[in-house]
Design goal:
Two copies of one chain form a homodimer. By secondary structure, the first copy, chain A, is α+β, with helices and mostly antiparallel strands. Helix content of chain A is 45%, strand content 14%. A four-stranded antiparallel beta sheet of chain A has the order 1-2-4-3, sandwiched between helices. The radius of gyration of chain A is 19 Å and the shape is globular.
Chain lengths: 209, 209
């Protein structure tokens, strides 16, 4: 597999083939890849809402500039951050490390302290910004995994997060929507697939030292 | 290739094999993948500094908690955002679209106006945050591409951006360092490679609707 070929194959798909659904196997690969996304410290302070229900997506579309990919894609993924992150959440993370690696909590006490200190130095706004950035790592991972799997995707910042939070009842689950990504298969009628990819030349984006 | 196997293979590598350098071919794949990173609107308001020079990396290491991967890895990549983004930058982006796709500027005038409006609605701080988030997409892409290529990597937020900016003379190029990623090959002595990956179970991170 040539990864560069795959990255050139992908594009922000605007029109999806409504009749082509992702197989369970393909969807499971995407979800497992999301679960494996790297995050700072490994904290995973995020969740992914997978919306298949069409009526719900019609509702959401109204708050995403009526973009057709919201309903036409096979599935809609809403990438969410935890609204905040408490010391208790860090302790739960510690429990998971200790259990997974069969360690005593003592063995990771220093690491836990370091994470808590680092969080204590952030005000709520900075913490929120930092939590949102983590979701962008998951986005980068998701888009590349989709390209590898020849699944089409459209990364979207253009939606109303407050409306999405309300419709998907995210606030009450302690979540905030950050990004939206419809996934599925491109329609033959999506003209964008025929346009040359626009990128700066390598010498403009890379500085060698 | 099983992408899930690759994602499970990767981990934040702390100790690299100093004697194993990336081949030119491998490095070029990584750099081309960075160039192809998705960004909002396709703006690519970022650059990547690839530091091979050991003396320079010794200098940088002092401002990254003396973490050994900064100097031991084959190459150090510093992911930078543009310090700001002006209407002029958007026009240059428009020039690139028009040239790449052989279009008249008229044909993309609406798209250009939409981007400019959206930027005009951001104050400098929000714009900076948004530009930084874009770099996290590139990070997610980079880490997954490295995994696919069996290149080891260590995503790092733990460094002093102001010191990196000064040492690498980034300010005068209108850049701010956001993230640091040493890449290369894991040392057999890095104990972290033997630890089980810690992740929440799928049912905790995925919500189906």
């Amino acid at each position: 597999m040539d990864i560069i070929e795959k990255l050139n194959w992908r594009y922000a798909t605007k029109r999806f083939d409504e009749n082509r659904k992702l197989s369970d196997e393909k969807l499971n690969t995407v979800l497992e890849a999301l679960r494996l996304s790297p995050t700072s410290y490994g904290l995973q302070a995020m969740k992914f809402v997978v919306v298949e229900d069409k009526a719900l997506r019609e509702e959401l579309k109204k708050h995403a500039w009526n973009q057709p990919q919201v309903t036409e894609a096979s599935h809609l993924i809403v990438l969410c951050r935890e609204a905040t992150l408490s010391e208790g959440d860090v302790d739960l993370f510690g429990d998971n490390i200790a259990k997974t690696r069969e360690l005593e909590r003592e063995a990771i006490a220093e690491y836990m302290g370091m994470i808590k200190n680092s969080l204590a130095n952030l005000d709520e706004d900075s913490k929120g910004q930092w939590l949102a950035r983590q979701v962008y790592i998951a986005l980068g991972n998701l888009l590349t995994v989709c390209a590898v799997e020849e699944i089409d995707a459209c990364p979207m910042e253009g939606f109303d997060p407050a409306a999405f939070d309300e419709i998907l009842k995210l606030e009450e689950q302690g979540l905030n929507s950050v990004l939206v990504v419809p996934i599925g298969y491109r329609s033959t009628e999506d003209g964008y697939q025929n346009l040359a990819k626009v990128r700066k030349p390598l010498e403009e984006v890379i500085i060698r030292k």
